[in-house]
Amino acid sequence: MASAIPTFTKIGKVIRLNKHGCTNRPFYHIVVQKTRDNFDGPVIEQVGSYDAMPNSQNEKLVAVNFERVQYWLAQGAGISNPVAQLLGLSGFLPNHPQTLIQSWKNRREPPRERKLQPIKGIAPPLDNPKI
Amino acid sequence: MFARSSSRIFNVINISCIQSRSARAWVRKPLGSPMAKSKMFRIAPKKFIPADEKAEVKRLYDNYFHQMKSLRHYFFEQSLEQAESGEVAQMKHRLEEEEHIRLMEENRLENEKTAKLREEKLKIQAEKTRENILASLINKEEETRLYEIQIEAFLEKQKATPFIQAENIEKAIEEALANPVDFNFAIDLDGYVYRGRETAIEKIPEEERERLRSN
């Protein structure tokens, strides 16, 4: 190995969310891509998925392949903020500051109107509609 | 997305090379155009964040980036270790070993073959050199023999010539004084000697013709 210290400044590859799905129904793929490629461009590897619409149990399902994420982090891939937040929530990475900031802001400010309404009548309604 | 992208041609922005009937994508406001009336005296609202919140945010981010950096380093080192000792690496190592042994075996066989060929070639060469040496020795012998014979002949000839030894000297002197040799003569290309005043050999009678012979 030429140098044991990898350079993180030049991030060629990135782990981020690619929005698929259709109108009013977003679905994200957690994906390893080159930074300059588009959301519909070539993807190096899909490493998980994130469903933004809550399901019948009021859950937003996230799937992550932690082994591959670890591999790509070792190779020097960057992570986008949403993916970092998800991984932090899952416990693989430390909690992202954005989660904490958002949580105290939610506690402070009154809630606002949201497009994505949780499904009523199946599970108990959420206390804070912001989440 | 690329079909709608606008290009900058001759510093004119917002022109699409590809014809499309849908709405033109807006890249940016042309550089020479004036500010819009609605935006003339606009002051952008700046969010006020209290100092303690800022400090907290900074602390959180610093910690986070520190942790991420160390995690990345750790993952990298893990990957290095795995590369050395993982399954794939072991299999690769094993395959390489086998390949190495096979190639060494092949090399050995090849070497043997070439060694055999070399042996034969060397034998033939040795034979040839031996013959050459023998022939040259024989030649040398012949030459020395001939040389010796020549030397013998030469010596004989030299010995045959009458040398004047110390004992013969007085006799030789008396003889020389008694028989003076006259060199006042001419000679022509055929070796005929002209002592008198005659210049043509036909004028001299047969009995008195003298001829110098070259040995």
What keyword list fits this structure?
A: 131 residues; alpha+beta; S16 Ribosomal Protein, Chain: A; five-stranded mixed beta sheet; B: 215 residues; mainly alpha; two-stranded antiparallel ribbon; elongated
Radius of gyration of chain A: 17 Å
CATH class of chain A: Alpha Beta
User: What strand order characterises the main sheet of chain B?
Assistant: 1-2
User: Separation of termini of chain A?
Assistant: 46 Å
Distance between the termini of chain B: 119 Å
Helix-strand sequence of chain A: EEEEHEHH
Strand order of the largest sheet of chain A: 4-3-2-1-5
Tally of extended strands of chain A?
Answer: 5
Number of helices of chain B: 3
Classify the beta-strand content of chain A into a percent band: 15-25%
Tally the helices of chain A: what do you get? 3
Largest sheet: number of strands, sense, barrel closure of chain B = 2 strands, antiparallel
Give a short synopsis of this structure.
The complex is a heterodimer of chains A (131) and B (215). Chain A has 131 residues and is of the alpha+beta class. Chain A has helices spanning 66-74, 81-90, 97-108, and strands at 13-22, 25-34, 45-51, 62-64, 78-79.
Describe this structure in words.
The complex is a heterodimer of chains A (131) and B (215). Chain A is an alpha+beta fold. Chain A has one domain (13-108): S16 Ribosomal Protein, Chain: A (2-Layer Sandwich). Chain A has 3 helices and 5 strands; from the N terminus they run E-E-E-E-H-E-H-H. Chain A has helices at residues 66-74, 81-90, 97-108; strands at residues 13-22, 25-34, 45-51, 62-64, 78-79. A 5-stranded mixed beta sheet of chain A has the order 4-3-2-1-5. Chain A is globular, with a radius of gyration of 17 Å. The termini of chain A are far apart. The relative contact order of chain A is 0.16. The mean pLDDT of chain A is 84. Among the domains of chain B are: 53-158; 180-214, no CATH class. Chain B is 55% helix and 5% strand. In chain B, strands 1-2 form a two-stranded antiparallel sheet. Chain B has a two-stranded antiparallel sheet with strand order 3-4. The two termini of chain B are 119 Å apart. The model of chain B has no long low-confidence stretch (mean pLDDT 88). The interface between A and B is medium-sized, with 19 and 17 residues.
